[in-house]
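FAQ: What does the model actually see?

It sees only this:
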Amino acid sequence: MKINVLRTDLAEAVGNVSRAVAVKAAIPALEGILIKAYGAKLSISGYNLEIGITTNIDATIQEQGEIVVSARIFSEIVRKLPEEVVCIETDERMITYITSGQADYQIVGMSSVEYPDLPVFEENESIELKGEILRDMIKSTVYAVSDNNSKPIYTGSLFDISQKTFKIVAIDGYRMAIRKEEVDSDADTQFVVPGKTEQEILKLINDEENVKISVGQRHIRFNIEEYSVISRLIEGNFLDYKSTIPKDKRTEAVVNTRALISAVDRMSLLNNEKMPSPVRCVFSGDEIRFSCVSSVGKANDRISAPIMGEDVEIGFNNRYMLDALRNIETDEVKICLNGSLSPMIITPVKGDSFVSLVVPMRLSNV
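And it is asked to produce this:
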């Protein structure tokens, strides 16, 4: 293989693809990136048996071929090369020669035969939507994905597509986030995408370009411009999320989002991450009163907000409440409560494009 390629294009591609490379793997090739040079494109892939990222960049290919090189070493070399044009050449001993300006390197590669094939699957359903929409949907829900592997199904988000409506649902046992959009698709399917895959998608999405999502029996593929991200799906039964949303609403308040975030954030200053004390919220009259008592001290605050319905006193984990509020895109939110032991429901003042639930913490009598 012998090619010339622009350093900036190569560095960006290698940086993105390397995020799918295994740090330590039983198969040594998985700690590398696969480089293929055919036609007028250079294909670069990273794969860790859970998620694979592949991209194509323009290159002048003098001799076709393919090689696997250490992702860590290769990315560091490319990032620090002095000139814009990079020449990469390999020989029959799998030695890879990298030259740019007066700098040149020789690194040991591996045969591409040792690199596992990325999954190929039959497409059952597909949907295409604008990158900006998918980014906003993932961003406003992925915070609620569980990091507890004892229930693997909740380490991902449910993608629910039916009746021209696309919903993403994430739940970790303490909070739930739902985001929905109308889509021009006749697909009717549900599947669970790993949260780690969603995080990688967020880093690659271009707001202006469309993203195509192709779904198979056990895998999913996201086509984002020149990138293809393929991931396994999580198997199992996801919670019937619709039944968990309380139907009764005994207390309602319309609150300025920024003011609410600031008040809860101020209560957080005295809280302990390892043993969090609840933020006590009293909804009464025309205000919400906040207080927090911890081993460090006490804090009190209040904000104006018209309260409709019954007065209620309820406690919340400050971090869970802030996560929900910070991932909302509206200036005002509607908070609905059904007593002190039922989850807080956060929605837009109008419509239902998002729903966030936060499970309350029990309050002491202090």
